[in-house]
Specification:
The chain has 273 residues and is mostly beta strands. It has a domain of 119 residues. The chain has 2 helices and 24 strands. It is globular, with a radius of gyration of 22 Å. About 7% of the residues have low confidence.
Length: 273
């Protein structure tokens, strides 16, 4: 396994405000060779703080460009001077990159926000997650994609299959081609779910919005029935839960696609419609 641990910290007791400002936005670039450049790639990135952008165009390797967040933002409200001593701003990031058998794993320190722009071969599946301070954007890749955010949006223009979920943000996905045998799911707690599919996509649909509306320009053959019930028996108690959902099919039906939001609208769009 190729493994690289990278730490970039810059600080100087004589640093002037001008010099500090010059370092903001600087990034570092790392080239990650693949075990077999002719085979599909899997990219796995897990961050606590920061944003992730993945783009096709890495050629026969994975190219990672990393930029640290502003330390002063993370330390907002803390004094610059204490006991006659001046605080030296921390900048930079700590990043780990591992590659084995065309699987590239990237992680960072949970205490520093890092913003990644990653170029990969077109035949790349991604598994991406972040929690705070950033969005996730993916474009131009083909494969099976899992994307998760907590406090940020998800945007993807890809081919294959997608499972995308965020808590606070919009989920916006455009699929140029759909894997014919893969179930997919798109959800947000607080935000719209907006998905565009090729016109000929065959799917069974399950669409839910607790505090919003559902819109589509597909010809949906709806089925009026309750969602599958959840039954619990415990301690002599019987509990039955029936969810509020719309079920239907497009183009005769196919793998299940689940669209769900609590506070927001669902938009299911037909490409070219």
């Amino acid at each position: 396994m190729r493994r690289v641990t990278l730490a970039a910290f810059a600080a100087s007791i004589l640093m002037t405000p001008l010099a500090a400002a010059a370092q903001e936005g600087q990034s570092e670039r790392f080239n990650v060779p693949l075990t077999d450049p002719g085979r599909p790639v899997r990219l796995e990135v897990g961050l606590v703080s920061g944003g992730i952008t993945v783009e096709a165009g890495g050629g026969n390797q994975v190219v990672v460009e990393a930029r640290a967040g502003d330390d002063d933002e993370r330390r907002h409200g803390k004094p610059d001077v204490r006991g006659g001593m001046r605080r030296i701003p921390l900048s930079g990031f700590k990043l780990s990159i591992e590659e084995k058998d065309n699987v590239v794993e990237i992680g960072s320190s949970p205490t520093v926000a890092v913003f990644l722009t990653i170029k990969v071969p077109e035949q790349t599946s991604v598994k991406l997650s972040t929690v705070n301070e950033g969005d996730i954007e993916v474009s131009g890749v083909r494969g099976d994609h899992e994307i998760s955010n907590v406090n940020g949006a998800i945007s993807a223009r890809v081919a294959g299959s997608v499972v995308a979920h965020t808590i606070n943000g919009e989920v916006k996905v455009t699929l140029s081609a759909v894997a014919p045998d893969k179930a997919m799911a798109f959800s947000s707690l607080n935000g719209d779910v907006d998905v565009t599919l090729p016109a000929g996509t065959k799917a069974d649909l399950r669409m839910e919005s607790e505090n919003g509306e559902i819109y589509t320009d597909f010809d949906v053959a709806t089925r009026q029935r309750a969602a599958p019930s959840q039954v619990e028996r415990q301690g002599g108690r019987y509990k039955l839960t029936v969810e509020r959902a719309v079920f239907g099919t497009i183009n005769g039906g196919g793998p299940e696609m689940h669209f769900k939001t609590f506070n927001g609208d669902v938009h299911l769009r037909r490409a070219g419609g």
